[in-house]
Amino acid sequence: MPQQNVCDSRPWLGVSSRINAHTPMLLLALGVGVLAGYGSVLFRYAIDAVQVLFYQNSSDFLEFYDTLSWYAIVLPPTIGGAIVGLLTSKGAPEAKGHGVPEVMEAVALRDGVIRKRVAAVKIAASAICIGSGGSVGREGPIVQIGSSIGSTLGQLLKVNRTNQRTLVGCGAAAGIAATFNAPIAGILFALEILLGDFGFAAFSPVVLSSVTATAISRYYFGDFPAFISPVYELGSLWELGLFPVLGVISALVAVLFVLTLYKMEDLADYIAIPPVLKAALGGLCIGGILLQFPEIMGVGYGAITLSLMDKMAWGTMLILIFLKIFATSLTISSGGSGGIFAPSLFIGAMTGGVFGVAVHYLFPAVVPSPGIFALIAMGGLVAGTTYAPITAILIIFELTSNYHIILPLMLTCIISTLIASSISPGSIYTMKLLRRGVNLQGGMEQNILKKYKVKDLMQREPDTLYEGAPLQQVFETFRQKNAPYLHLVDKNDELTGIISFRDLRSVFAEEYLDNLLIAKDIATTCIETVRDEDIVLEALHRMAEYSISQLPVVGTDGKLIGTLREQDVLAAYDQSVVGMQLKDAA
Fold it and tell me: Positive or negative, the Cα torsion across 20, 21, 24, 27?
């Protein structure tokens, strides 16, 4: 009797082996979910504790600000800013700002490796910034906190690079899920924005971490929507036609927010003062704004609720759109620590609120409730700033538990993303990386070569020759050194030219020129150079542009300090790729 094929008789073996292979990773994901869940709980309690310390009240700021004297409003953001500036400058500079770009960069360029101290510094800095009055949100910090927890666990257990990246995504998903009570949105945020991977190997652990963290959060804070959603049912197709217009407006406001944020960061970089003083001055300005517009403090959920319930004047909402953009940009650019997700929700609510009042005035029979536009525009702003429409749709749905808004929400978010991405080259997250020269869309080659600077790969003892050397010495030097290029230098070792074999062709057969010409006479003197601090990828692009195989490296004083060869760059790239493959196989 012929032997029966084992694969045919027991197909469950393949499935079983795959499950067993994923079991350790699922256990790690469970651990990340627990740690990030409790990290989120600790972070929220820390924010409340800081607010009680500065204001003696943990309620929404709008409920008690009118009982405070002017100095009790102005001083807390100033003092808080100074403390945050000290923490981030001395403890962990990557804890400054909104945090998500740093996590994305770690995933793309460092295989998810994040310094172990980041979680602790981020909790302290962001809690102080938000609790003292900074105009930022808590989702960016909790993403960085959760990601840091996942990264630290992966580093301690020495997992391979693929699992290291996945654990970072698990931490981010757990943080978002626990903070917003939105497990599905946490999953989509990690997969859509951070990892860009919806495969089973990444999806399952991320889901487990998100669900675990949500369960922990609900145990401490309860299970209820973050916002009270206005009642909405689609009345007519004419009403549905207003939401694409809202999508376009949301996109324009989102682009304004992104551009303002990074323009103010540029401006802050030009101000050469100590980080502590810079953050304190930023906090002082925020305190001055709070005197007249307390709505901009912190995450701003109280003001968002008022706009959803049609309890805020349209003029106030219009002012708050631009004021929140400015206040959030000021907080982050001056050195504060906090997220941009909640400010995006705030700006969206105000934008939609103004739009809702306007269309209700023009078409009162078609638009029964202006507040619904505030809710939908919240998703539109998130989609327009993050370029993540799926995450935006699901997080608004989970924050409100209102299924009836799905259709207009999808229209608004998709259109907002399309319009915003066609205007601005990067989202509010990727723009920060693009400004650092990191293009996440560039693929493996871009990310690998951007890790290197010219000084890492250059040859530090290039073949040189004095520019006044006679022609016979040029020939002899080429013969002795067997070099494709000779770098000419003057008496001060400053680079003055390059000679290649191509430059010698015209004088090979002219023996009488030996005593008439010197090296500089036949050299190429119009030369491309690079600095040792330049990025290798940019240098490689210049080699391709000018069809050359190496570039001389000069210092700030013009002296030759090395040469960067194409063959060395390609060797480093190959070595990095092999190293990645070995890590994955480990």
Answer: negative
